[in-house]
Specification:
GO terms for molecular function: oxidoreductase activity. The chain has 239 residues and is an alpha/beta fold. The chain has helices at residues 9-14, 16-28, 44-48, 52-65, 77-90, 97-106, 110-117, 137-143, 147-154, 177-180, 182-198, 209-221, 231-235; strands spanning 2-5, 32-35, 71-74, 107-109, 126-133, 157-161, 203-206, 227-230. Helix content is 52%, strand content 15%. The longest helix has 17 residues, at 182-198.
Amino acid sequence: MNVQLFIPCFVDQLFPETGFNMVKVLEKLGCTVNYNPNQTCCGQPAFNAGYWDEARSVANKFIKDFHTVDYIVAPSGSCTGFVRNYYGKLFDNSAAHNDVKMLRRQLYEFTEFLTDVLHVTDLGATLNGVATYHDACGALRECGIKEGPRSLLSKVKGLELKEMNDCEVCCGFGGTFSVKFEPISIGMGEQKVNNAVASGADYLISTDLSCLMHLDGYIRKHELNIKTMHIADVLASGW
């Protein structure tokens, strides 16, 4: 199976190892993985800030960069959810309408692709410790991803999965929300981290590095004994 990688901006710039681990997992499962180096942003930051014309320009480039019949896989529910749910608004009644429809069908968040397309849950990964899972808003609310990541984590050898309180509550990042409403964002992050720590977890895991980056900032500042991990990094562990 041919797969095109969509690597979001912050993964490319700050967490490239997660992208490489995603490739490692996909290739183990027999996928031929391709990466278009011309790809840039999906346009979500501009869209969320109200700059729809600028977002449309970026999104139009994205459509051209990913004009393919292959599956497109991304380590981000946020970016995947944005393309699926809001490109239709940007390109309604435009010449790109059919291209957008095809793109929305082909694009999958990483764990969703593993469980819903490849029908795989056991990657042979090993990670010793206790983990808790954070339902990122983009993955849960915009992509409907809930049980898939938990099924994948339940098969990781040595890993005990414990649910924390309010696992579905937002972590407070929200992109520009964390800049515009910093005190509220920090308070929400604090609540999320405290719930994770109270669960007894060694690892706080999610599908979205945007959430994890926000939470890790709080964890580091307060020197807490818990580590954030993207699920692709977990699934690539121990083999």
